[in-house]
Amino acid sequence: MDRGGISNQLAQNPPFSGTNGVSYAQGWRITMSGALPCSPNCPASPSPVLDSTLATAPLPSGNFTNLNLAAPTGVSVIAVLPTNLTPMVSQWNLQVQRQIGVNQSVSLAYVGTHGARITRNYDANQQLFTTGARRFPNLGSVTTQDNSGKSDYHSLQAQYDRRVLNGLQFLGAFTWSKTIDDGCGDLDTCAPQLYTNYAIERGLSNQDQNYRLSLSSLYELPFGRGKRFAGGVSRALDYVIGGWQLNGIYTLQAGLPFSVTVDGTPGNTRADLVGKPSVNPGNITTYINAAAFAVPAKTAGGIFMAPGTSGRDILRGPGSSNMDLALFKNFSFTEQVKAQFRVQAYNLTNTPHFANPDSDLNHGTFGQINSVQPNSWRQVELGLRVTF
User: Fold this and answer.
1) Helix, strand, coil percentages for the chain (3-state, nearest 5)
2) Closest Cα to residue 109, out of 176, 201, 184, 48?
3) Which pLDDT tens digit goes with each residue over 197-246?
4) 314 in a domain, yes or no?
5) What is the total count of domains within the chain?
6) Which of 120, 131, 241, 339 could be cross-linked to 331 through a Cys-Cys bond (beta carbons 3.0 to 4.6 Å apart)?
């Protein structure tokens, strides 16, 4: 890891800082499990075992038995280029902070990264447009991994921090960002239309969320012994009204990008763009403007003639909002024995967190949102912790 940085104290308040650095991804190794079934990988031991004595007349005659070592067809393989290098990420940021009073601060930062030699997968024996044939007909897919991918991330990050005072703590953060790349490591979700032309794959990353707001708070209720209200109550009553704490986290964030695709040959073909791509937020039955897309031209045999003209990840799925709330009750029996009872509610309002819509233009459910994100429904947990 190679890092550098600058720090300049412009005045007592505010400070200004900047850092930059280069890091490398963790290495990995190649392993193999399993093998082709017998024929041609059969044991090479003769049967019956060869006799160690000389043969006597008459000697055997005739041709050798046909070993039938024909190579199997349609086998799919995985290849890793021997020239692969370790992926590298450059990071930098500039930040300004301002202290407000004795317990509050605000900050504004620009954060950026650039990824090089990013790992990506593609089928080097991809079915060809117009014919549908593979370059090597005796093989199936040849999943190839190289590290020629690139990525860029730029963001503006703002934060407000109110440290604990009178039992109240608050933290608010907002990020406005953009992530661009030309592929990812998952062959199923972002395989290129044409692996020989990755330039048409450059677009929003599958992981791009262009905004995210996060608000969190902690509030110790001002009741019970040593607090603002009822501070002189008996120990027994304090067990009831004292020691309560309320925590909350609220998030509001954008959805994830997706592409409009079309079933057919070759696979992973995107639709043609014939209008202005747009979505209808809040409409789960016609989320995508279908009039903006068309099925690419096909041959008489049903093979696509060319890659679709729509870009990668040009539409964005529905965003989400979420409220988590936790209530704690702290007990202090002795200096050594303490307990905490808690109730935690995730997605307190049970607001649906919709998944991306069906984005295959050939499907009857195209443009419809038919599912929610996994484990996004309301969940309530009860817990008790005793320390002694």
Assistant:
1) 5, 45, 50
2) 176
3) 989 999 999 999 999 999 999 999 999 888 888 878 888 888 889 889 99
4) yes
5) 1
6) 339
